[in-house]
Design a protein that fits this description.
8 strands, OB fold (Dihydrolipoamide Acetyltransferase, E2P), about 400 residues, two-stranded antiparallel sheet
């Protein structure tokens, strides 16, 4: 991720390279890898990244649990104040006020896994719907990165836009107030289930601002909306600026708000493109704005990302809706359709990622890759000049990603 210099206020500084005992609340879903367990521990002195090699027998750690661990404390990275490497787990206490949203998601996930009995398919479906990328194996994550599709398994504004769109379809004919209230409630519930990550903090704020503007008939310029969300999220936690998800979230949203309408008007003029065409254009726009950041952090250029987005992106909302229905109602015809689409997606991802030239690896940490923003901005300016597009937004449709 891009590192920014922050004020030297790390309270853990005196304890680096020493053995310490820390207690904190698990801030997000733990990741279970082949040889270790990883999770984020929220403490009074900041966020600590924990990597446990051997978990005590019959010990299960979930989001919102209070965990105490003893181990060697090392310097943190990104938005982590410290890194606790291979500690011993002293105790795990479940919250006296259970994380209701996590319990609901767990029950929902079990229902989906029963209906979609193929583990690889059910995990991919749940990743699309709830952003539980921890369900995916490292091999699956690498394939998604090579195919330029890693962003679709991170709960973000793209998911929120579908939630808001569903609320507008369901309550739009009742009243504007009913739509606003139901959409806001759905946003809160969805964010509670996925977790208040930096990307969801940004996505939730911008989606709510857009919804609020639509309800009151107000208009925001995209740049102003982005600056508002940046200011608020950094006010809540200044360390977000060093968080890769936060950086990619704003980059993708900027691509959608600035590049999507320009490409759309250049290709279609004043006509409205179809649903799938709109989805593909938005996905490609987000990818273009995120490209320099992903190149800097991962050092891999996904050569076939455009093809992957064109082939797979249009099918993702169908899988998300079908998965949501399956989690509530076991409907056989829907199971068949969802499984067929998931099988196609997995086949396409494997076919693209397994090409020897799917990704060009030139090494991470090359600052010169940010020069790529020069042609990107140049492209946007050229399209703006050719189309004469005005960025005065219309919030009849809620944009988010």
């Amino acid at each position: 991720m891009i590192e920014f210099i922050l004020p030297p206020n790390n309270q853990y500084e005196p304890y680096f390279e020493k053995t310490v005992t820390l207690s904190g609340v698990v801030a997000d879903d733990p990741e279970f890898k082949k040889d270790d367990h990883r999770f984020q521990l929220k403490t009074d002195a900041g966020l600590v990244y924990v990597m446990v090699e051997k978990m005590p027998k019959d010990t299960i750690i979930e989001r919102s649990d209070l965990v105490t661990a003893t181990g060697k404390l090392e310097r943190g990275f990104g938005n982590y104040a410290a890194f606790l490497y291979r500690p011993q787990i002293v105790s795990v206490a479940h919250s006296s006020m259970p994380d209701f949203a996590t319990k609901v998601r767990a029950a929902f996930s079990r229902s989906v896994q029963v209906q979609i009995d193929n583990e690889e398919q059910s995990n991919l479906a749940l990743s699309f719907l709830t952003g539980q990328k921890n369900l995916l194996t490292e091999d699956q994550k690498n394939k998604l990165r090579l195919a330029g599709l890693a962003h679709v398994v991170v709960a973000s504004g793209y998911h929120l836009s579908l939630v808001v769109g569903f609320a507008k379809k369901l309550f739009g004919k009742i009243s504007r107030f009913a739509t606003f209230g139901s959409a806001t409630l759905m946003l809160v519930l969805y964010i509670s289930i996925t977790g208040f990550s930096p990307s969801m903090a940004r996505a939730g704020l911008i989606t709510f601002f857009s919804l609020w503007a639509w309800y009151f008939g107000r208009k925001f310029h995209p740049a102003r909306l982005i600056l508002y969300a940046m200011a608020i999220t950094l006010f809540l936690d200044t360390s977000y600026i060093n968080n890769l998800a936060w950086q990619l979230s704003f980059a993708s949203y900027s691509g959608i708000m600035f590049l999507t309408p320009l490409i759309t008007k250049f290709l279609y003029g004043d006509k409205k493109p179809g649903y799938f065409a709109s989805l593909i254009i938005a996905s490609i726009s987000a990818q273009i704005f995120c490209l320099p950041i992903t190149l800097y952090n991962f050092g891999v250029l996904p050569v076939l990302a455009l093809l992957a987005n064109v082939v797979i992106t249009p099918t993702i909302p169908i899988v998300m809706l079908g998965t949501f229905v399956l989690g509530i109602l076991p409907l056989s015809p829907i199971i068949f359709v969802v499984k067929q689409i998931l099988a196609f997606q997995l086949f396409a991802i494997d076919a693209i990622a397994n090409q020897p030239w799917a990704g060009f690896d030139f090494g991470a940490g090359q600052p010169l890759v940010f020069l790529a923003y020069l042609p990107i901005v140049g492209l946007a300016l050229l399209l703006k000049w050719r189309t004469g597009h005005s960025f005065r937004p219309s919030y009849g449709k809620i944009y988010a990603c």
